[in-house]
Design goal:
Elements lengths: L1 H20 L5 H10 L5 H8 L3 H13 L3 E5 L6 E5 L1 H22 L4 H18 L3 H7 L14 H15 L5
Antiparallel strand pairs: 1-2
Helix pairs in contact: 1-5, 2-5, 3-4, 6-8, 7-8
Length: 173
């Protein structure tokens, strides 16, 4: 059942994001990521998109061509930073809202107690499946970072590892 749920939600989120952006592929994830982490370079953006550098350049080219983003000078002369335009910010908001609505609808049959129990179980599973920092970024590519602050995010905590969790005072049982 967990597998069916994962596939069903993944398909539904992918469809909602693609419908919202009018594009298949990484466009929605790029918009959501750049809205929450403006100024990323190609190398930093490629990690959550799960793409090669050249594929990420193509995604950024498309964002720029459609007026969703602009390139600015990066931290050094060889790099570029990508920022969303006002049009891109609006599109990113629609992407995140479509994901939020879909998940709210999916969880609507659950009581508050069931939601709390499910949250605890999901935290454990996410902790178990998160292998490293890059994997964490990939898992959270469509997350609303404001809804899941870093200090409470099970994926972020798993990426930090037990030593860093202890240092932060956020070790999970």
């Amino acid at each position: 059942m967990l597998g069916a749920l994962a596939v069903g939600l993944s398909d539904a989120i992918t469809s909602a994001v693609e419908t919202t952006t009018g594009h298949a592929g990484a466009m929605g994830a790029a918009l959501a990521t750049l809205a929450q982490e403006p100024g990323l370079g190609i190398e930093q953006l490629r990690v959550p998109l799960g793409r090669t550098q050249s594929a990420t350049v193509r995604v950024v080219d498309q964002l720029v061509a459609e007026g969703y983003a602009e390139r600015r000078p990066g931290q050094d002369q060889r790099s570029v930073a990508v920022f969303l335009t006002a049009k891109g910010d609006r599109a990113a908001s629609r992407v995140l809202a479509s994901r939020e609505q879909l998940l709210a609808d999916a969880m609507s049959p659950l009581t508050p107690g069931e939601r709390k129990t499910l949250t605890g179980a999901l935290e454990k599973v996410l902790d178990r499946i998160t292998s490293d920092r890059a994997h964490a970024d990939l898992i959270c590519r469509l997350c609303d970072l404001a809804a899941c602050p870093e200090r409470a995010c099970p994926v972020e905590l798993a990426a930090l590892g037990p030593r860093a969790q202890l240092a932060e005072g956020v070790m999970r049982p």
